[in-house]
Description:
There is one protein chain. With 302 residues, this protein is α/β, with parallel strands linked by helices. It has a seven-stranded mixed beta sheet, with no helix packed on it. A six-stranded mixed beta sheet has the order 8-9-10-11-12-13, covered by helices on one side. The longest helix is centred in the C-terminal third of the chain and has 24 residues, at 218-241. It starts with a strand and ends with a strand. It folds into two domains: 5-230, Metallo-beta-lactamase, Chain A; 243-301, no CATH class. It contains nine helices and 15 strands. Helix 6 (189-199) packs antiparallel against helix 7.
Amino acid sequence: xNDFIQxxxxxxxxxxxxxxxxxxxxxxxxxLLINDCLFxxxxxxxxxxxxxxxxxxxxxxxxxxxxxxxxxxxxxxxAQFYAHNNDKPVIEDINLMNGYYLVEDNMEQIELYTxxxxxxxLQNTRIDNLIEDDMQINMGNGLKTKVxxxxxxxxGHCSFLEINSRVAFLADIDLSSFGPWYAGKxxxxxxxxxxxxxxxxxxxxxxxxxHKGIITGKSKIRESLKNFKRIIYDRDERILENLSEKTxxxxxxxxxxxxxxxxxxxxxxxxxxxxxxxxxxxxxxFFKQDLIQPKDMGYILS
Length: 302
């Protein structure tokens, strides 16, 4: 067996962790394979071709529309594709991505995304079957997966729990040290928090995430979810510390302070752009909580 395909459970020998190229770092992601059902296709074109040689893949469950999770769709033309209705439009028409990433009026960001999408050879994918919260999907060999709608990252983002093995695919509730990402048109920091809380109500023995990998043990998974959510609270505190009761501040004023990105990479221009969007989502949350109030195109503490 290829070394990027790993059995996950001694008891359930038809469940595999499928590593993404470059340890699942963007623009790649990890996947989960249960019998002939693959969760996301962003492992890389080379890995996908190798996977197809050893495993029949007839069904694809897409967690959401982001390019690093659907880039291998084109290599599986005969498979049945599943996705949530809220993410279906973008998967079926990738020309909508610029609008969903809120870069449609920013030529620098459009050029960056165009380069990335062309490099991934992204194509439109027809969604054959819609999934929704609490739906159960037969995986074969007595295995059955429960759909858990977990919006916040995208509006249609879903996690999945195989009921018998208690193996979950959490997708981009990825439990990474960076924390939650919610810089899209269909993102929400409030919904992201709710989705993390929702997952903590499930008994999960093994969690697979898109960019961190495998986490084993109920208590460790719960603690990882709590730590992941705590990153949002830490961001809350850093933003509020930079606001005052007199001088209004905008999200643009607060970007470049490492509030979201603890360090900036070669993609700094985009990271600053995304940081501003995410800070604005925190402002929306604070306003609903009556912690801030608008003043002169910015916000002050209430």
